[in-house]
Design goal:
By secondary structure, the chain is α/β, with parallel strands linked by helices. It is built from 7 helices and 12 strands. The chain has an 8-stranded mixed sheet. A two-stranded antiparallel ribbon has the order 1-2. It has a two-stranded antiparallel sheet with strand order 9-10.
Length: 276
């Protein structure tokens, strides 16, 4: 199957809300929360459901304190740390997410394997970075909207990775989007950066505020379905497009695209996706 370039989404973003989609969601959620899967575990789907499974290995890169651990916690449904602590060695986590293709209606169950290593630990021990880079499909380069130095540091990190990662997808992830009002990076700087490096951008809100019965406002990790679905949909579409192009199934992809929010979108939506 050959697919010409299109500005349309490759997947049906709201399919997970449908009757068929909920069969998959029920396999990865329990009691309204995400199930945490080990490396050898997989969702227990009904026997009549046998979707194609695509595996992706993602490596996270970014300066210490930029939000790598909390971003992985959000995407995998794990509790986020309440205070910053350098990641000791390599921490690997798994998330499953189902997507339905817009072109032919096929369902793919994606298995996302995230590899996170502390920035300082990686510099200290020679075996850390090679283990994280082995057989990867995507590198997530993280910066914080509230830390300009982390954004400026991306130029060097992307430049250093050009030879090692020339056959893999590179995505920049802006963390702490919930604090965009304190952003130290302008929209034009982001747009110029994307055009220079030809990389897609995900802007992720790492935490959100909820109100308890007593009226007290508490901060929690965003790991419920409404919160995490847009993030996983966007990431999976990036990976799907890149793999389909490599296989010759997709001629081109509209990497330069800003998705506008509809009137039904939550005003506090956690992600704003730009395809470059």
């Amino acid at each position: 199957m050959s697919v010409s370039s299109s500005s349309e989404s490759l997947i049906l973003p709201d399919w997970y809300k449908s009757k068929d989609g909920k069969q998959y969601i029920n396999a990865i959620f329990k009691g309204g929360k995400r199930k945490v899967f080990g490396f050898l575990e997989r969702p227990a789907l009904p026997p009549q459901i046998t979707p194609e499974m695509w595996n992706f290995k993602a490596r996270l890169v970014g300066k210490s304190g930029v939000g790598k651990t909390s971003t992985v916690a959000k995407l995998t449904g794990q509790p986020a740390p309440r205070s910053h602590c350098e990641t000791p060695g390599i921490v690997s986590s798994v998330a499953y997410w189902p997507i339905k293709l817009n072109s032919n209606g096929n369902v793919i169950l994606t298995r996302l394997q995230f590899w996170d290593a502390g920035d300082n630990v990686g510099k200290k021990y020679d075996h850390i970075y090679p283990a994280c880079r082995e057989d990867i499909d995507v590198t997530l380069f993280l910066f914080s909207y509230t830390d300009r130095s982390s954004f400026l540091d991306l130029h060097k990190k992307l430049s250093d990775s050009e030879d090692d990662l020339k056959d893999t997808l590179r995505v920049i992830v802006g963390t702490k989007f919930d604090q965009i009002y304190r952003s130290e990076i302008t929209s034009k700087e982001l747009e110029d950066f994307q055009r220079q490096w030809m990389v897609p951008l995900l802007s992720v809100q790492n935490v959100h505020k909820t109100e308890t019965d007593s009226g007290r406002i508490v901060t929690e990790t965003c790991n419920d379905l409404k919160d995490v679905a847009p993030s996983l949909n966007r990431l999976c579409e990036f990976l799907l497009a890149f793999r389909m192009i490599k296989k010759g199934l997709l001629k081109d992809y509209a990497w330069v695209r800003t998705e506008s929010r509809s009137e039904d979108d939550d005003a506090d939506s956690d992600i704003e996706a730009t395809y470059v």
